[in-house]
Amino acid sequence: MMVHLSKKQLLEAESFFRRDFVNSLAGYKSLNLIGTKNENGVTNLSPFSQIFHVGATPPVVGILFRPHTVERHTFENILNTGYFTLNHVTPVFYKEAHQTAARYEGSEFEATGLEEEYLNGFFAPFVKLSPLKVACKLAERVTLKINGTELLLADIEDVFVEEKGLRKDGSLDLNELETVTNTGLDEYHIGQRLARLSYPKPGKPLEEIL
Amino acid sequence: MMVHLSKKQLLEAESFFRRDFVNSLAGYKSLNLIGTKNENGVTNLSPFSQIFHVGATPPVVGILFRPHTVERHTFENILNTGYFTLNHVTPVFYKEAHQTAARYEGSEFEATGLEEEYLNGFFAPFVKLSPLKVACKLAERVTLKINGTELLLADIEDVFVEEKGLRKDGSLDLNELETVTNTGLDEYHIGQRLARLSYPKPGKPLEEIL
Predict the structure, then answer these.
(1) Å from A83 to nearest chain B CA?
(2) pTM for this prediction
(3) Are A198 and A206 in contact (CB under 8 A)?
(4) Contact, B89 vs B99, CB < 8 A?
């Protein structure tokens, strides 16, 4: 049984319903904790899930931020300092990761007990427990006309990944790293592999890559 | 044991290694089949995973496309007609979904046996087997300076979702819908819920939403 919801019905629905519903439509999301530090040395940590691959040569990542209408520490720290980190979340600390979204006055690292660490002299803090950490440097800012959403594009400067999750061909085993993915506003999942599939060509049967 | 890869090492690595590695860094991705139709009535179906929530009021979705240097049917059909559909993939047809990425001359619906359907008079074709289908209308195009990647923003016009996956609060149960997520270039997974968590506030313990 299929339910049909039109744009008109969505716009007339309660705002909590519309927010949850529309946020879930694209599917599973790329959850990361973003670590930043302001000019006074105060660190910040916050969960984001609108993060996506933009290019490999050079390595570039993109992140969407809500319109810049109120104070947003992560966004402002990135604009002011140019640096941030991405940190995958695991089942061991996904509740602390969720809790970093609360409105704290000081550092979310201290407030939630997640330990920060500094690697390779990079300015912004990483999450010590994270199995995959990426050092990023701001490269381009685009404000989307449609609704004021802010898109930041960043160069990937360094990656730190637990050895068990890195395969010889360069692909990452996110099941092995226990990377958490999220849906909607508040729901967390781990992934369970179906298969890796061979490169698709017309007339050629697919094979599973083992 | 953490492995460190610098930007320099990535740029000097084999291109297949760099492509797989960088593509996997953000985490699990939002896999959808995009359905389009050209001005001559030829349909097209192709898998995309750089798809993300942009806003709920009005409902807007964003999709990244590789730089427009060679013929790309999906991208051109959207630019020329203004319409496309997003279709979640399930374990029942994820191999056919992967196979639609092969370079076919005609329609990928015919080539892979995935049945197309038309709903509510919408111009572009949906995937009949999909448990969550979204009708989209092109709203804005942004070419990213950093590497020529194309960002399309689209208004969500209609949503069709299997009733079992829609909760009363508007959130979607993607485990129940059996939505597939992907990582890297060729790897497919289903999600397994850890929990839904209550709204985070300083000093307030999180609760699981059941």
Answers:
(1) 15
(2) 0.97
(3) yes
(4) no
Averaged pLDDT for residues B151-156: 98
Under 8 Å between Cβ of A154 and A84: yes
* A113-164 confidence digits (pLDDT tens): 999 999 999 999 999 999 999 999 999 999 999 999 999 999 999 999 999 9
What tokens appear for B94 in the block? 């994820």
**Residue at token pair 């492995």:** B3
- 0.90 surpassed by complex ipTM: yes
Chosen CATH of A28-190 out of 3.40.50.360, 2.30.110.10, 1.10.357.10, 3.90.79.10: 2.30.110.10
CB B67 within 8 A of CB A55: no
Let me know the angle formed at the C-alpha of A191 by A186 and A196, rounded to the nearest 5 degrees.
Answer: 145
pLDDT for A69: 81
pLDDT of residue B44 exceeding 90:
yes
Nearest to B191 by CA among B50, B77, B89, B46: B89
B-proximal residues of A, 123-182, CB under 8 Å? 132, 134, 139-140, 142, 144-147, 149, 151, 153, 155-164, 166, 169-172, 174-175, 179-181
- Tell me the CATH number of domain B28-192, given options 2.30.110.10, 3.40.50.300, 3.40.50.1100, 2.60.120.10: 2.30.110.10
